[in-house]
């Protein structure tokens, strides 16, 4: 910073040649500053991703006395015959389809509530944000206990219905395992997106609301015609980040159900880790990851296309 | 100014180069040896957090380091849950320690994968032939590892409870049959005293599943894989006998004899009287005896048709193939093979000593001792899990199939899919040849 502000004064006498020099120096500085980040990105992102793609076409294993051989599309043909893979895809899609609108909507409602100018709002902001700063592993462990057949959730249900309704074994029943995980995930993640929405809300100029009020707009009209259009950029961001996070559902599954019961909670990422690490089939897991990559990329591009600026 | 910019650029480039260098080294050090610097050998164990067993390891190391001046062994301990992953990661980076312990069923996989080197411990105080066979790890007729103890599975129950319900307390000469066992569970269930009379630790995870339940599968006449050549699981894991086991296993849940998922501490639940009969490891025998005294019944496994069965093989010691000081490593392995250490291990961990000589020094394991039956179980009923490099894979598939069966999947489908996957895995790995 100091170098930049000091430069013009010393460079004044022979401006023309000095400008090109300065520019060259500037680009050199930029290069130097960018290099560490670029190198880190290449080493820890580009290379592993490229390696994973290459591995998908080999028979690489986690433990093996022989080096990996090229096997063409074998991993993929095997994958498309694997019933668990289809279940993983279905569960992942199910999770994303429910979580994305639910979490985004709930987060927006919370953001609108805590954006109101009433006393004690900071308290609620903190409360809603608490689960976000708690580790997902810890949250998952806690909820595993809550969801037990004799856990807190069922106690509450039983008490509220005066003992008439006995809650199920939430995580042990294929019908309720995924909804239970969805509920927990939304609870954990909603605070983060609330903050994002809140940031978006606070960029909307107060004059617009005042003008709308003077024109006699109802709160609903104000939301539809001032708030909602004002959140355009935020909306895209929230949509894309929740979708990607939902697709990569893993931690909760690993801690709470390990994909069971009866594959009702297995997901693409969970299957990749299970086959790649627990079952030592590195190449097979790489093939799953490759498909996952294509899937996420397609959906993200589609979302970008649908939410693009229409001129 | 110019100087400063250039210096910044230079520093960045240098930093970047250093990063690249470090990253490059980590992945590309190639064939090499590790695990020792000169005569200082590194030793890894899974015992962090298990101070009783760790203390014995420490004692042997201390004695060894004091007994001679050439070699020094240095200990590094890992928590059990992370241990296997740490070894696999270290092996990929060719940074394995010289000495390491390994869970019995993984020996074949690690030997095949080139992690372990065959060992020669002739001339040590305790000859390998004196050990329980399940405590010795061999692959392709070569010795790769040995353990100081084994564990046994047994049913634990209260004599008073069984007598009260008119249930015969079985002996090794006359173990429970399937019909008798089912009838006993029905009686206990009917009494209404127990929500779930049988406790088999179904809340456990990982290796517990094949360790605890595959012996029951074998007693039905099934198995994890056709042990003739270890080339296929189809017809064995999904054969008639195996499916019968699956039906029985599922019936325990449908009839309400056993919880689909047991609590966090099954042994505590048993001692608290929540369950009547517990299928558990011998490592809890001492605790149970202490709490229940003479009321404790240690019951042999049920004979489901092919004789009572329990799993064999526990943690064992081995030497890595990349060890740069194999002579020193073998020296330590030989030194550790003294009867007094076999005794120390068994006492510290409440497990079954691997040799008779050691068993004789522990009152409880001597003939007439209260845990002598456990030694007998290990000797007569132990079936080691399939000795094949495919075992880790088989283990995960069996675990999933068994869990699915408890959750309500058809045993034929669940076991059939597992058998198909195992066969596929064997085929794509050319039956783990090489």
What does this structure look like?
- Chain B: Belongs to the bacterial solute-binding protein 1 family.
- Chain B: This is Extracellular solute-binding protein.
- Chain B: Keywords: Signal, Transport.
- The complex is a heterodimer of chains A (311) and B (434).
- Chain A is mainly α.
- Chain A is built from 14 helices and no strands.
- Chain A has helices at residues 2-11, 15-55, 74-80, 83-115, 121-133, 136-146, 152-160, 174-201, 206-214, 219-230, 232-247, 251-256, 268-278, 282-306.
- The radius of gyration of chain A is 26 Å and the shape is flat.
- Chain A starts with a helix and ends in a 5-residue tail after the last helix.
- Residues 1-8 of chain A have low confidence and may be disordered.
- Chain B is of the alpha/beta class and 434 residues long.
- Helices cover 45% and strands 16% of the residues of chain B.
- Chain B contains 16 helices and 16 strands.
- In chain B, helix 7 (208-220) crosses helix 8, helix 8 (240-254) packs across helix 15 and helix 15 packs antiparallel against helix 16.
- The longest helix of chain B is centred in the N-terminal third of the chain and has 27 residues, at 2-28.
- Residues 15-31 of chain B have low confidence and may be disordered.
- The interface between A and B is large, with 40 and 44 residues.
């Amino acid at each position: 910073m100091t170098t930049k502000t000091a430069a013009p004064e010393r460079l004044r006498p022979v401006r023309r040649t000095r400008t090109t020099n300065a520019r060259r120096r500037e680009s050199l500085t930029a290069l130097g500053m960018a290099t560490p980040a670029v190198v880190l990105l290449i080493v820890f992102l580009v290379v592993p991703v490229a390696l994973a793609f290459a591995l998908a076409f080999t028979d690489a294993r986690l433990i093996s006395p022989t080096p990996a051989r090229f096997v063409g599309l074998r991993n993929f043909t095997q994958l498309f015959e694997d019933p668990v893979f289809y279940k993983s895809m279905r569960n992942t899609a199910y999770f994303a389809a429910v979580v994305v609108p639910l979490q985004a909507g709930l987060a927006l409602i919370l953001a609108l509530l805590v954006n109101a100018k009433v006393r004690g709002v900071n308290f609620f902001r903190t409360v809603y944000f608490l689960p976000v700063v708690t580790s997902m592993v810890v949250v998952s462990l806690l909820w595993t206990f809550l969801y037990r057949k004799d856990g807190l959730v069922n106690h509450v249900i039983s008490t509220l219905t005066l003992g008439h309704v006995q809650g199920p074994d939430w995580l042990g029943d294929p019908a309720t395992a995924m909804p239970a995980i969805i509920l927990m995930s939304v609870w954990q993640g909603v605070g983060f997106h609330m903050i994002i929405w809140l940031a978006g809300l606070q960029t909307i100029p107060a004059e617009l609301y005042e003008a709308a009020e003077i024109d006699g707009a109802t709160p609903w009209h104000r939301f539809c015609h001032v708030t909602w259009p004002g959140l355009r950029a935020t909306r895209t961001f929230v949509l894309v980040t929740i979708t990607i996070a939902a697709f990569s559902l893993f931690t909760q599954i690993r801690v709470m159900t390990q994909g069971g019961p009866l594959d009702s909670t297995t997901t693409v990422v969970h299957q990749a880790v299970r086959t790649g690490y627990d079952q030592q089939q590195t190449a097979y897991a790489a093939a799953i990851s490759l498909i996952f990559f294509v899937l996420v990329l397609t959906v993200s591009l589609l979302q970008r296309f649908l939410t693009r600026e229409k001129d | 100014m110019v100087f400063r910019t250039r210096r910044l650029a230079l520093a960045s480039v240098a930093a970047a180069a250093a990063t690249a260098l470090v990253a490059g080294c980590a992945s590309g050090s190639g064939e090499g040896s590790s695990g020792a610097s000169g005569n200082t050998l590194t030793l890894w164990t899974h015992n962090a957090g298990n101070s009783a067993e760790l203390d014995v390891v420490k004692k042997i190391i201390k004695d060894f380091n004091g007994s001679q001046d050439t070699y020094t062994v240095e200990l590094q301990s890992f928590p059990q849950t992370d241990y296997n992953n740490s070894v696999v990661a270290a092996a990929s980076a060719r940074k394995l320690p010289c000495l390491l312990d390994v869970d019995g069923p993984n020996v074949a996989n690690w030997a095949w994968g080139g992690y372990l080197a065959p060992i020669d411990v002739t001339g040590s105080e305790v000859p390998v032939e004196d050990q329980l066979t399940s405590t010795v790890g061999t692959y392709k007729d070569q010795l790769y590892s040995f353990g100081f103890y084994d564990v046994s599975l047994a049913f634990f129950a209260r004599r008073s409870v069984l007598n009260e319900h008119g249930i015969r307390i079985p002996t090794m000469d006359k173990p429970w049959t399937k019909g008798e066992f089912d009838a006993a569970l029905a009686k206990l269930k009917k009494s209404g005293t127990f929500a779930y009379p049988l406790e088999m630790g179904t809340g456990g995870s990982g290796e517990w599943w094949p360790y605890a339940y595959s012996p029951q599968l074998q007693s039905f006449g099934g198995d994890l894989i056709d042990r003739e050549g270890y080339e296929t699981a189809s017809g064995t894991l999904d054969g008639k006998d195996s499916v019968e086991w699956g039906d029985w296993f599922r019936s325990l849940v449908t009839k309400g004899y056993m919880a689909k998922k047991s609590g966090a501490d099954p042994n505590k639940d048993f001692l608290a009287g929540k369950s009547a009969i517990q299928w558990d490891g011998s490592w809890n025998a001492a605790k149970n005896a202490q709490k229940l005294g003479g009321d404790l019944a240690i019951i042999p496994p049920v004979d489901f048709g092919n004789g009572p069965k329990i799993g064999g093989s526990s943690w064992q010691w081995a030497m890595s193939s990349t060890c740069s000081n194999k002579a020193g490593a073998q020296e330590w392995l030989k030194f550790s093979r003294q009867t007094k250490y076999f005794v120390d291990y068994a006492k510290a961990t409440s497990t079954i000593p691997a040799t008779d000589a050691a068993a004789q020094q522990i009152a409880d394991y001597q003939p007439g001792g209260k845990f002598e039956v456990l030694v007998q179980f290990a000797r007569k009923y132990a079936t080691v899990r399939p000795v094949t490099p495919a075992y880790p894979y088989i283990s995960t598939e069996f675990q999933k199939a068994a869990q699915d069966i408890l959750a309500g999947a058809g045993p034929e489908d669940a076991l059939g899919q597992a058998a198909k996957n195992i066969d596929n895995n064997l085929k794509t790995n050319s039956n783990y040849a090489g």
